Amino acid sequence: xxxxxxxxxxxxxxxxxxxxxxxxxxxxxxxxxxxxxxxxxxxxxxxxxxxxxxxxxxxxxxxxxxxxxxxxxxxxxxxxxxxxxxxxxxxxxxxxxxxxxxxxxxxxxxxxxxxxxxxxxxxxxxxxxxxxxxxxxxxxxxxxxxxxxxxxxxxxxxxxxxxxxxxxxxxxxxxxxxxxxxxxxxxxxxxxxxxxxxxxxxxxxxxxxxxxxxxxxxxxxxxxxxxxxxxxxxxxxxxxxxxxxxxxxxxxxxxxx
Length: 257
Ligand code: XBP
Ligand code: MG
Prior knowledge:
The protein has 257 residues and is α/β, with parallel strands linked by helices. It folds into 2 domains: 6-17 and 102-255, HAD superfamily/HAD-like (Rossmann fold, 3-Layer(aba) Sandwich), CATH 3.40.50; 19-95, DNA polymerase, domain 1 (Orthogonal Bundle), CATH 1.10.150. The chain has 9 helices and 7 strands, in the order βαααααβαβαβαβββα. It has helices at residues 18-33, 42-48, 54-64, 75-95, 105-114, 127-137, 163-172, 186-194, 245-256, and strands at residues 6-9, 118-123, 148-151, 179-183, 199-203, 218-220, 232-234. Strands 3-2-1-4-5-6-7 form a 7-stranded mixed β-sheet, with helices on both faces. Helix 1 (18-33) crosses helix 4 (75-95) and helix 4 runs parallel beside helix 6. The radius of gyration is 18 Å and the shape is globular.
């Protein structure tokens, strides 16, 4: 069995609860600015999360929720403009009011770095959004903590397609046997497993806890801190209160045995 060398993190829902409190709010701000009376409530947004990618999500919304909408002739440009405004609002939200990382995320990233594990990101979101979250919620130099940041339209086929994880592994120069992935959603799980990575830790959130995570090695509520121990929801009991590097190595061995 190959030794664990790199950790590849999803961003939205995994590092922070960006969907409900970041993306959703920013979409609504962009709609209002454009004079559209669309309101993506917490519940509606949960239904829209079946589609990854903001531009793709707007298109899906128009097709399935507003079939009578008189779309402009150039629909893709209309959506691209709305989405560009949404990205600006999202970046501003990451500064004020800001968004905390999920429990244990910062602790584990620091421990992994100290242990010499390589770090990468594989996400569907726009690169500028990753920068905004990392620099405001983790550390000013946090982008440098990650050797590879695979994000947004860098691969045309977004999750659940495996392409973004494949791309990240190619950039790392590592095979799937040496990588572990962190995800929060069924789309993410399918993307990871399709890429050949078997070592997969899922941290659920309010939007995803009832989804199908078949194939994930372990499903937990969050990564855990001293004050907030984590709970294993499914998979082997290899974690004691907090996910640490030792637990990651045990999970990796279990996934490949
Ligand atoms: C994340 C997404 C993203 C964000 C929006 O999925 O679906 O599309 O919701 O980002 P995952 P953009 O966590 O599985 O990567 O608006 O920048 O596309
Ligand atoms: Mg996610």
